[in-house]
Amino acid sequence: MNYVPINNVLIDKIAGEWGLKPKDNSGVKVIRTANFTNLGVIDFSNVVLRQVEPKKIKRKKLVSGDVIIEKSGGSPTQPVGRVVYFENPGDSTYLCNNFATVLRPDKSIIYPKYLFYVLFYNHLTRKTIPFQNKTTGIINLKLDDYLNSVIPLPSINDQIRIATILTRVEALIAKRKESIEALEGLLKSTFMEMFGDPLRNERGWETVYIKDLCNKVIDCPHNTPKYSNIFTGFYCIRSSDIQKGYLEFNSTLQVDVATFKQRNVRHIPSYNDIVFTREGGRLGNSARVPQNVNICLGQRIMLFNVDNNIATSEFFWAMLNSNSLQRCINNLASGGAAPRVNIKDVINIKCCLPPLPLQEHFAKIVKKIDSLKERFSQSLAELENLYGSLSQRAFKGEIDLSKVPVIYEWEVEEIGMTGVDDMGLETRVEFTEQDLIELVKKYSGRIFSFEELWKEIGTLPNKKIPMRKEVQDQLIDLLESSNGDFEQVFEILSSQVSRSDSEKQIAFRGKYEN
Which of 4, 72, 418, 463 is most buried when burial is the number of CB atoms within 10 A of its CB? Predict the structure, then answer.
């Protein structure tokens, strides 16, 4: 495996441009670091318009295949140096802002998507940290120094193969995330279809206060617990542990057994209790307590113990997460930058009470969706681990790339993939000049185009697909070395006869004897 400085594979580095605020809706589209996602994808949904001088636009406009690197930003938990891959979604002109720099790859040396993936992996594995410094609260990337660091540089064909593998896994990850999001949307739409707006109560059901649906409503102790620095199995739930309606225990802090008991004097949280954030930027977030887990309440958290004789926990939880309840809670909040609601205000919200059998039917739907979401989440974790493992092995030269075809344009299909060996790809050998001669012999006695030849090369079994330029060079060598057996002609191709705009095209004629 060869290693070269990043600078050596670039034909240009283009500083970003911010320009001026436009006076109207005119201007050029500018990609900010706020448009960077942590998956290396650009979020085009909120790209801003800026007024920039035409000559700067001409010099700095992005082209598909550019890699944009963040040079200012980052945080204590996220290094600066994120990268995104630019692929123009239409025919608009785009620039990047002055917190980023465009890296334009030399396509004769490096495959653009490969450059993106190797720099994305560098950031993912925190290799940009030695190249960052902090000034006035902003973390900056020492870009010149970073671009002098080295990256692995296999052959162009192997770069394409690596990009093919990672793109396929990346597509699977994106599809799995879309599936999870679709389940979340299905849950909300099912709730609305079955119960309607729980505050407006269009169905005319009985109305009650939230407190009437609960056996207990528990507020958290108003002090910060002493956290344990060893695993205890006793989790202390904070607002950051409630994510999209579910408890996430990846970074949940733990306490010792004495603290756990002390914080749960009034009630030990149990299966299907509801934890709720009543203060801070995550105000209104709620989640059900899962089975077989020991938790206590951190600050800013309250708990609802639902009376299952009149309401299911699933209905109560989905109601709290409904748009109308969320709006109501936000309207009740005070505190400005640190919004909070009083427990008394929350428990006195008036809502509908649908028939219990209907709630129980909804609870069954929730359990099915939970089961699917758990499976999809497990699959997502496995795919993300696979992506990391494949990246590491690919950039160390530890993958047998002979099993991966060179694909320039492809549609990613959702394949069952647990490793490179499971891609169902057969071993292929190099396409040689002799293979080219054998193909040309098939056309002996008639005229054919390069495109016809190129398409047939793509269908050859057990052959690695060569670079298009490589085949063109081989044809030139063949023309120069042939003794009249192979020649270039200018003819109207048979495939064009029916076209009204037919004109003579460069074509070839083989005279080989079979």
Answer: 72
